[in-house]
Amino acid sequence: xxxxxxxxxxxxxxxxxxxxxxxxxxxxxxxxxxxxxxxxxxxxxxxxxxxxxxxxxxxxxxxxxxxxxxxxxxxxxxxxxxxxxxxxxxxxxxxxxxxxxxxxxxxxxxxxxxxxxxxxxxxxxxxxxxxxxxxxxxxxxxxxxxxxxxxxxxxxxxxxxxxxxxxxxxxxxxxxxxxxxxxxxxxxxxxxxxxxxxxxxxxxxxxxxxxxxxxxxxxxxxxxxxxxxxxxxxxxxxxxxxxxxxxxxx
Length: 250
Ligand SMILES: [Zn+2]
Prior knowledge:
Elements: E1 2-13, E2 17-24, E3 28-34, E4 53-60, E5 67-76, H1 79-83, H2 85-101, H3 109-124, H4 129-142, E6 165-168, E7 173-176, E8 188-190, H5 192-202, H6 216-234, H7 239-247
Parallel strand pairs: 3-5
Antiparallel strand pairs: 1-2, 1-4, 2-3, 4-5, 6-7, 6-8
Bound molecules: zinc ion.
């Protein structure tokens, strides 16, 4: 069968083969063996490159969970992403995030389409950081981990300008400080102004959505909240996230 796919990474195997990890729209995350791919320009033509959207012809293998990759044809090359270290790191993060939260072999076309949209946005760099934060929150929602920003999950009430507000990865969202019994080193303080701006940005019906400007400190608060949440739900660090922090991309 032919399935539209996004390549995450590939590794050499032996003299001529490659192992490719990719997200297919129809079968979810798969690991494939591309036999003779480093020699056959006809069947592969150098199209199995990370971050590309590719139509891949796959066939099941009897001996393991991997598939055979028989052919690959480039649909979108995203050259800018592949040539720019920061864009590459950001694209890696979105792929690493979804590969960790979507089980292998489980198809999710909505996740696929959103990832493709994110890669397109990165490649054109038409979106600012707030758009990518919103897209990340949408991706987390599709993967079943929607963070809650409008009401405190502990008491169900909203927030006011006089509240001390804490993002708790354990509670899965923003909480009143007084509702959390214990403090935790992974909690993040978030200002009421950030909460108001973020809720507007996330509300598709808001007249302000798409025109929201977030201050540097607000963006930092949201970024730190999402990073803490992602690490909490993965139960470990993400290589791409750690790298972006170390080099100062986020
Ligand atoms: Zn509360």
